[in-house]
Specification:
The chain has 454 residues and is mainly α. Helix content is 58%, strand content 2%. The protein contains 24 helices and 4 strands. Helix 8 crosses helix 13 and helix 20 packs antiparallel against helix 23. The longest helix has 32 residues. 45% of the residues are buried.
């Protein structure tokens, strides 16, 4: 596999026939930091988090004020509108991938969106999932990890997905008032605290305990959504409510954090974001995503050291990844996920746009619905997850449909060496050449072993 092919497919989103292979692969990747647009044209047309949150808050208020018999109708109307926002965002995500001027950075957006996963399986999140990627991930992908972490965990989609809006300190002012009024209490919810420790920062088996989870959850109480009437602060998407906050000092991972309201949890997040275990966890995930399911220990250490030395400066970590010789080994060690394969297939065909409904249906068929993983851990990044026989059959069916749509407009024999530079095998080239029709030849190219891997 040539260096240009590695840059295009392993680091990027796949080669396009109308774009030349980079003469300086490493330089091409790093130059994309200057070309990256946090909000490309496809995203600029969509409603942002404050407007979408307004719709959600209005629906909540309407449900609360309506007679019981009318509430289900209000919820259904909101969900119809939320699904429209979801589909529009899926279309914007697909268009950004197909049109990307900075495909390496666009791939990093997808990586981080999966790292800080939310899922539309939770209906409360449906209308906000796209805005989560637009406003919590895209602006911070070339910044500091700590800033992205804070933006992600305070975004309404995450607060709703992990039930943080339901969490109340057991000894908080709100809990005491509820007890005095003999009202039902919601109590402490540990979901956000647990996932920040286990998934977003330190990683599993990194030494934290259940007591650390509970203490961190206490510190996070009061982190919630804005009030329904935001007044002058109409753009706010997060607020801290002192009455919900558990009073007192907290001890997390052996460190004591004095009572400080919102700042207490922010101090914990800062220490988590800069911890050695977090550096290793992030380094392992990046190396696994770009290089191999079982990444070289030397590479992981190299990335972790850079993360720690720079205080989590993400571009510095990316530069170290691009510079590492382990990332440029010719063997195609990674099997494309359905999202990666679908994007690279359409890029190879020269497509620059796809309807939102088609993009969503395509990913549903391939088994990786957009923003719909089965858990907060996000979608798996290991080859065996996506290489099962039924999954390959789905790709073959999609490849045939894409080829039928293209008809004879694409010459797969000429296309193959352009989108698989330096990696096209004689066996694949021969199979394409012997195909009985142009459509069959294109379908064979899209499911060729070289095309399924990166």
């Amino acid at each position: 596999m040539s260096a240009s092919a590695i840059a295009l497919t392993r680091f990027g989103l796949g080669a396009r026939p109308d774009e030349a292979a980079p003469a300086d692969p490493r330089g091409w990747l790093l130059s994309q930091f200057e070309r990256y647009e946090p909000l490309p044209a496809a995203w600029k047309r969509l409603a942002r988090t404050p407007a979408l949150l307004d719709v959600w808050l209005a629906q909540q208020r309407a449900v609360r004020q309506a007679p019981p018999g009318e509430r289900s109708g209000i919820r259904e109307a909101y969900l119809r509108q939320a699904r429209e926002h979801y589909l529009a965002a899926v279309g914007a995500r697909a268009a950004s991938g197909l049109q990307a001027q900075a495909p390496f950075v666009e791939r990093l957006v997808h990586f981080w969106s999966n790292h800080f996963a939310v899922s539309v399986d939770k209906l409360l999140v449906v209308g906000l999932a796209g805005a989560f990627e637009a406003d919590a991930i895209r602006p911070h992908v070339l910044g500091r990890f700590e800033d992205m972490l804070l933006a992600a965990v305070r975004h309404p989609a995450m607060l709703l997905y992990l039930d943080q809006t339901q969490s109340i300190g057991p000894r908080s002012t709100a809990a005491r008032r509820a007890e005095e009024g003999q009202q039902r209490q919601r109590g402490l919810n540990e979901n956000l605290a647990r996932e920040i420790l286990e998934l977003h920062t330190l990683g599993v088996r990194s030494g934290y305990t259940q007591e650390d989870v509970t203490e961190f959850a206490h510190a996070l109480t009061g982190w919630t959504l804005p009030a329904e009437e935001r007044g002058a602060d109409a753009a706010a998407t997060f607020r801290f409510v002192p009455a919900l906050h558990e009073p007192g000092a907290r001890t997390v991972l052996g460190r004591r954090y004095a009572e400080g309201g919102e700042q207490q949890a922010r101090s914990i997040l800062h220490d988590l974001a800069t911890a050695p275990a977090t550096a290793r966890h992030i380094a392992s995930k990046l190396a696994r995503h770009f290089v191999a399911d079982q990444p070289p220990a030397e590479l992981v250490q190299r990335l972790a050291d850079t993360f720690l030395r720079t205080g989590g400066d993400l571009p510095s970590v990316y530069r170290e990844l691009v510079a590492a010789p382990q990332a440029w080994q010719p063997a195609q060690a990674k099997f494309k996920s359905p999202w990666e394969w679908a994007l690279s297939a359409q890029r190879a065909m020269g497509r620059r746009d796809v309807s939102p409904a088609e993009a969503a249906a395509l990913m549903n068929q391939l088994g990786q619905p957009v923003w719909r993983p089965g858990s907060p851990a996000g979608y798996d990044d290991l080859g065996p997850t996506w290489a099962a026989p039924d999954a390959l059959l789905r790709r073959a069916e999609v490849a045939q449909r894409l080829a039928q749509q293209a008809g004879d407009a694409i010459d797969a024999r000429a296309l193959a060496p352009r989108v698989l530079p330096g990696v096209l095998s004689e066996a694949t080239a021969g199979a394409i050449a012997r195909a009985e029709s142009g459509g069959t030849a294109l379908a064979l190219l899209l499911v060729a072993p070289e095309f399924l891997r990166r």
